[in-house]
């Protein structure tokens, strides 16, 4: 369905803020204009849930999470950054594999099955998108996903 992604992402972040129990700030860097994408809303909500839950889970107390939306060549990038423990460079590709978890001891303490990002990747790719990670150990992580942007005039309407 055709979705106003600007409204959509604000709603998703609003809901996270309302339920946030941790001492963490979520900052938005979202342009003040409408972007339209063709998505299954429930599925992209699941993607955002998985990525933002990780950002919260791996953030330190008092940490800041930034949700940024950037337009780039007919694509819409969504970037979720945190100031958490980070991910070692050599493990960056693997975090999207099923059941993969960095540092078993640390992960066991924090709980989880290692499926969140694998599911997110599957759902994003089903939308002709792509998802990837950048990280610096002990500084933080950024997960970025890209979705095709609908053309302003030529895009079909429904
Ligand atoms: P689940 O999401 O199934 O509850 P999980 O969070 O461990 O479990 P994924 O979301 O797939 O699994 O993430 C895989 C692994 O990648 C995590 O175990 C963690 O080691 C690492 N990881 C993911 N996001 C972050 C992040 N924002 N900061 C640091 N490490 C991360
Ligand atoms: Mg997870």
Automatic annotation (TrEMBL):
Name of the protein in question: histidine kinase
Section covered of the full-length record: 456 to 613 of 613
Subcellular location per the Swiss-Prot or TrEMBL entry: Cell membrane
Superkingdom of source: Bacteria
Organism: Piscibacillus halophilus
Histidine kinase domain sequence ranges: 1-151
């Amino acid at each position: 369905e055709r979705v106003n992604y600007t409204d959509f992402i604000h709603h998703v972040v609003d809901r996270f803020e309302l339920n946030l129990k941790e001492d963490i700030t979520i900052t938005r860097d979202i342009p003040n204009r409408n972007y339209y994408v063709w998505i299954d809303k429930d599925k992209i909500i699941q993607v955002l849930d998985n990525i933002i839950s990780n950002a919260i889970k791996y953030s330190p107390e008092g940490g800041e999470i930034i949700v940024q939306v950037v337009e780039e060549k007919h694509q819409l990038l969504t970037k979720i950054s945190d100031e958490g423990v980070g991910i070692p460079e050599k493990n960056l590709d693997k975090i999207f594999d099923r059941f993969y978890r960095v540092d078993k001891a640390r992960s066991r303490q924090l709980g989880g099955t290692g499926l969140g990002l694998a599911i997110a990747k599957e759902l994003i790719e089903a939308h002709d998108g792509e998802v990837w990670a950048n990280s610096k150990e002990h500084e933080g992580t950024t997960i970025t996903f890209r979705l095709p942007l609908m053309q302003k005039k030529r895009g079909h309407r429904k």
